[in-house]
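If you are new to this repository, start here. Below is one unmodified record pulled from the training split, so you can see the exact layout before writing a loader.
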Amino acid sequence: SISKKMKDKFVAYRCENRIGFITLMRAEKRNALNPQLVEELKFAFDTAEKDEKCKVVVLEAEGEVFCAGADLKYLQSLQSFSHEENLADSNSLMELFKQIYTLKKVVIANVQGHAIAGGCGLASVCDISIASEDAKFGYSEVKIGFIPAIVSVFLLRKIGESKTKELLLTGKTISATEAVSIGLINEAVTSNNLDEVVLEIAEKLCRQASQQSLASTKKLIR
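And here is the target side for that same chain:
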């Protein structure tokens, strides 16, 4: 059952046929990250991890954009935050990325649209990321005077120093096809086939591997 805390908010969780779906529901703001959304995501991943009926997790989003990074209004408010408040805010996002990376269950990202800055971090920290061919990826932090410190840790492991530098220093966006070629995501498919491909991967994992072997393999690689 979904906790009351999660109803009518920014994130929903449901489990169908052993697959847990975590859905971003802030489409009118391009699923932009703010403290509430980050906290609700942490709660949803915790719920999925504890749900005995759930074997594999799919992270998805409503609307045309997967996640456009941090909320602009929220970014502007950071200027008035104290050092301690900014540190707590950074720690919260770090905890979310670490939670996904270390979750005992496999997490598949269903990226139906652009994934920018923190949204790109969200997609790339998942175990398997499948995107629509028209999606764009990028870390735009340097362009607005921010440092992509949290995601850099995961990126260096995933795509190496050369490509990490290229993405983080230029702040450029790349196509889903290029994201596949550098190892940022796993596959780019037509938008019509995206849900089907993600579901097929999730169902295969449910059928072909034990919960324990999936968890142990994730831990081994980590």
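Two things worth knowing about this chain: The first strand starts at residue 11 and ends at 16. Confidence is low (pLDDT under 50) at residues 1-7.
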